[in-house]
Amino acid sequence: MTRAAPLLPALRHALAALLVLVAVMPAMARDADMRTPAGYIVGMELPATDPGMAAHVQREGQKMPVQIGGALFDGDEVVVRDAGAAVTIETVNDRQLRVDATHSPHRVTGALPSGGRFSALATMIGELFESKPAARTVNLIGRNDETLRLQMGRGAAQRVVPGTRLWLGWQGGAAPFTIEIRAPGEGGAVLSATAATGRSAALTLPSTASGPLVLEVRDSADEAVQVGLLAQADPPPVPAWISEGAPTPAFGQVASALWLLERKPAEWDLQAAALAADAGHYAAAEELLRRLAEGWKPKR
């Protein structure tokens, strides 16, 4: 008993230290949750053999893997070691920046307004860059299928805003193709028309368009596929936090398109494609349009 007595003060001190640690741990967790979003990784040029050694994100003393769609926070450092590697980022301060070994490490600074709510859409954008799964669903068409097939906009009558430059992609059929927007019914007046040798085209819905319309693709064998349109003056209800949370306008347009594609009923799909097409030569936008033409849709 006499030997145990000196241990009591030490035990009291240990218990007190443990209580302090337990009290501090929730605060540490809150600090981690309160990181300030500053941007996203949108491109990588890394060797396939060992990408983890070529580049990483340094965050609070930890090495984080780089991945497209991955969030960047204020204070992160993008580190590129390999001379042939590069990481493209979009942040509120840098806009779009390609970080290579010469300019490494690059410290990320800034804050995106409402950026936390944007993370799920950013992850979906990252998924667009990933390779397509080997198994194709039955509704997709093989490259050698000659049947003219239109997947886009078939889920519901498509609401479109007059004056919008619409983008449409399809599968199969024999070139050249004629694409028209016209009034419904036999012999309906043609409002807009264009021709295409490939399997995608853009044409403008006139600013004076109103009511129900038909968008038709016809091939050289006189096969035709159609989508019903409903001209609507009001733009689609894309939340403001999407544009506020995007570091660049192009990133925001792809995110807006994905948000519209997730809506039920699927009545804004063509307007979503128009948003993505308006992003220009932007890898995520181009990949999204290609997948839409093949029948891909995000999980609703």
Describe this structure in words.
The structure is a single chain. The chain is α+β, with helices and mostly antiparallel strands and 300 residues long. The chain has 7 helices and 15 strands. It has helices at residues 7-33, 51-54, 119-129, 240-245, 249-261, 269-277, 283-293, and strands at 37-45, 55-59, 62-64, 71-73, 77-80, 86-91, 95-100, 106-107, 158-160, 165-169, 177-182, 190-196, 200-204, 211-218, 224-231. Strands 9-15-14-11-12 form a 5-stranded mixed beta sheet, with helices on one face. It has a 4-stranded antiparallel beta sheet with strand order 4-1-6-7, covered by helices on one side. Strand 2 (55-59) and strand 3 form a beta hairpin.
> How would you write the strand order of the largest sheet?
9-15-14-11-12
Provide the low-confidence segments as ranges. 1-12, 14-32, 133-144
Spell the H/E element sequence.
HEHEEEEEEEHEEEEEEEHHHH
Largest sheet: 5 strands, mixed
Supply the helix-strand structural class.
Answer: alpha+beta
End-to-end distance: 69 Å
Mean pLDDT: 82
By DSSP (H or I, 4+ residues per run), the number of helices equals 7
Beta-strand content bin? 25-35%
Number of strands: 15
* CA gyration radius, whole angstroms: 26 Å
